């Protein structure tokens, strides 16, 4: 396909106001950034729905410059590449995660950690490009749409053998947990790994921690998700119930690394820390709207030699590594495919937490993936 | 000297009530633990005064089983060794830090990290021995005394060339900062190191961070300690003043590691975290009586990829390594020697923070070391 076939304007489900997540996304035209020599245009086949989409579309994480096209777990076919792009070509199936651009020049960018760019890590939506070039100053628009334009540095080829819809939610949700699992040595220096929360992020935590060779413990409020957690790879389950010391005491100092995916601002942080062996790490990847701790004491840190850290999404190189691991080990996201045109039914479902865990006799966790059948996505 | 010359009862400056630190230590007899095959008896020449001594003697850190002999920066001459002790002999000059015993069998003890013993890390004072043997159940007594009896595993030889009085405060204060500096790669993976607080611990932080090859930044409330900090090795000084973002902004993401020695419960923790590069660590070694943070938010951890940890004292093997470094590089603690018999004058001075930083025109920071001239200590 030549570039002539890519329209100059794109269409997408736009959030135009804070109530968009109540079934009020609007299908309308918008203007993507001007095409640069290092850009890639993608015909969108799949887009996972991430909790961040809802926080942003609704303005829950702060003011938003409407209209916004959310969605940052994008998979599709390359339909145009700039002259500087060498790693993908027209016809390739590629993915874009939650980051679209960065300065490419700072220490972090040069160390393949552009998500921590010192200057301007640009989100796939709700961002503004700032590098010199024709797109400077333009807004970024995400994947609930027909096309997506992205700087090629943030476009990753989907490896052969990995289902394209299953790959989609890995691009943000998957790498958000895979990245700290790798950074903190899961399966290597950290043999015993705990995952707090069995939701969109947590299910990837269990799947990838197991794939990396760790002994996996699922940590959840109640036993309701135990059966699913075991299917995802957990060999031990800790129900924290009230969050009192008694719930944690039997498991004290039994983990080397905990990835904490919960958004619950009342999480029992000190209890989680007590599960770590000295030298262990508790890494936050969820972002509660409130503080993660009140009255944080020093002694658990001192006498436990434990640390509390955080991690945000993952770099394109980590995404590539994760997708290759998923292809090799046949790791499957737990997804449900829904037509992209039904977004105004799907999002309210998810917003009501139905997607996270259905209130059924045999609860089944799923992540929704929007399917753009017009562009070749398969339901 | 044969064992016959070691008295069966020891004498020391005993804390007998919460007001002991107001000049009411009492010189009296007490019974040390029964001598075991792996014990060492030490004729005390020097004992540094550590802030922990005051917290414990006064009951500030919780209930205390009086009488207590505090002091855990002990240097003296070996006068008796048990049959199992091979690494020191009668006549050697040795030191004992803040830890006196541990189970010696758990994963942490076997990994030379007995300060994080899974079972019972026994303090040099205010502890009770729990290993099988003649001393099981006995109280531990520290160094404001004529003799000290310690399990040999926690007795370290003072290397040749290191002044014995100068070595004393390194045994707790020194290793408390040296241990995390080494654990987190100061001078190696962590080239740029910050030390918060220029007090007993902080001055060692500056001295040892420099000795380990790091670029050292001193971080203090005001500029008053700048000249001293530079003498101790700092090449950059950050005054945090009010703790507002403006005070930190010019230095954002400029450090790889921060050792936080302050006891100030109102410390600007989020400001300190903003000084770290992604992947950086803020390590607490001071123990405020209140919480170190209220309303701890998640975002600085996520977007900064920084972590908050803690570290307690140091193992005998780390003490040995530190003393050898100090001997080799001629590192000198900033000390003032005071006769041990004057303890009831010295402690009230220190309690009033005069020792930490004198209110003089040219302030000079010092750590007090009690000198037992009867046993050969030199004023």
Please characterize this protein's 3D structure:
The structure is a homodimer of 379-residue chains. Chain A has 379 residues and is α/β, with parallel strands linked by helices. Chain A folds into 2 domains: 3-172 and 315-375, Alpha-Beta Complex (Quinone Oxidoreductase, Chain A, domain 1); 174-310, Rossmann fold (3-Layer(aba) Sandwich). Helix content of chain A is 22%, strand content 23%. Chain A has helices spanning 51-57, 107-110, 164-167, 173-183, 200-211, 226-232, 245-248, 269-274, 299-304, 316-329, 343-351, and strands spanning 10-14, 26-30, 39-48, 74-81, 93-96, 99-101, 122-123, 147-151, 155-157, 192-196, 215-220, 236-239, 255-260, 276-284, 307-310, 335-339, 367-371. In chain A, strands 3, 4, 5, 8, 9, 16 and 17 form a 7-stranded mixed beta sheet that branches. In chain A, strand 16, helix 11 (343-351) and strand 17 (367-371) form a beta-alpha-beta unit. Residues 358-363 of chain A have low confidence and may be disordered. At the A-B interface, strand 14, helix 9 and strand 15 of A face strand 14, helix 9 and strand 15 of B. Chains A, B: It holds the Pfam family ADH_zinc_N.
- The Cα radius of gyration of chain A reads 20 Å
Low-pLDDT residue intervals, each spanning 5 or more residues of chain A: 358-363
Oligomeric composition of the shown chains: homodimer
The ordered H/E elements of chain A are EEEHEEEHEEEHHEHEHEHEHEHEHEHE
CATH superfamily of the largest domain in chain A: Medium-chain alcohol dehydrogenases, catalytic domain
Shape of chain A: globular
**Mean of all residue-level pLDDT scores of chain A:** 93
The number of strands of chain A is 17
Structural class of chain A: alpha/beta
Number of domain units of chain A? 2
- Helix run count of chain A: 11
